[in-house]
Amino acid sequence: MDKPVCLINTDSDGKLCVQPAALQVLQQIQQPVVVVAVVGLYRTGKSYLMNHLAGKQTGFALGGTIESKTKGIWMWCVPHPTKTGTTLVLLDTEGLGDVEKGDSKHDTNIFCLAVLLSSTLVYNSSGTIDNRAIEELQYVTELTECIKVKSSDEDVDDSTEFVKFFPSFIWSVRDFTLERKIDGKDATEDEYLEFALKLKPGTSKKITSFNLPRECIQKFFPTRTCFTFPFPTAPEKMSTLESLSPADLSTEFLEVTKRFCKFVFDKSEVKRLKDGHTVTGRVLGNLTKMYVNTISSGAVPCLENAVIAMAQIENVAATQEGLEVYQRGMEKVKCSFPLELEQVSSEHQRLSSKATQAFMARSFKDTDGKHLKVLEVG
Ligand SMILES: Nc1nc2c(ncn2[C@@H]2O[C@H](COP(=O)(O)OP(=O)(O)O)[C@@H](O)[C@H]2O)c(=O)[nH]1
Ligand SMILES: [Mg+2]
To answer: Which of 33, 121, 137, 200 has its CA 20 to 30 A from that of 279?
Structure first.
């Protein structure tokens, strides 16, 4: 893909919908995917940072005006720069908290989709990690209502289960101008983040609401890292940032960006389903379709149901793939007719096992062998 495409959009009624052209792109990707999604307030430099991850100067459209450019979720699939045989999928989300739209349910849905689809979630904010920046991440406090782990109707608290399937978390702080000091001592970026997430003792209403988002971030995202970026360039050059060459960018900004990209490439893992099954581009497309349909129907997406639904789709396709392997092989055998019965029988054996191998490579969770049987009968 030489440029990003829109993956999720809203239709004229404001309902979320998946773009068929983006699904088609994903359908073609048989490789496992590392999915990095960025969320945060609009106009905090999210799209600009994602372009750096893609190794490109331009790509995701930047919001040069106050109106936010990115609507819904945009996607860019590029070969993973360091993990061969893997595709890096970058998801750029529309800015949260756009006053023009003023639709917090919509923002929550976009945030949930970013959590559900990614293996690394980047939360981007500007300035410092102060109380305001943490409150802007209020969506974390709603995650327990927006995502279910198990399909049972019982009202169980899934939150402790979340951590096993949630993306790892990176907080990127932009235009950071302070010195990172805690009690007068130099602090690393991670120490700075942990300090900002520290809970206050007490049970007053004020303290409880101070602690709640911090508790949620700590609980849902146990693997977390922070990067503090300085201003990218001098104020007078900021308006043309997108066209500036690296020589015009501050060396500190380039250094942090380089470390950030290296960290993402080294540490972001391949996306997996709840049962540990690797997500390929194709599965990611089906997963997106399923989650978006669930959310737009007003239901709560469930990680366990997703495994069952994905297994069903993949197993039907795997049966088809196995059959095709067998049929293609048999066509070839037919060309060399007449053959001894013995030869035909041994070719049949060979192709059957090749077909089963093709099936096994793609199928998963076919625990009772239902789909494999279909292949054998077929
Ligand atoms: N001050 C500042 N501006 C930035 C930074 N990165 C990008 N910008 C500019 O801020 C505007 C919005 O950037 P964009 O990436 O579209 O923000 P998004 O809405 O969060 O995706 C654009 O004019 C960018 O050139 C940054 O680190 N600091
Ligand atoms: Mg943007």
So the answer is: 137
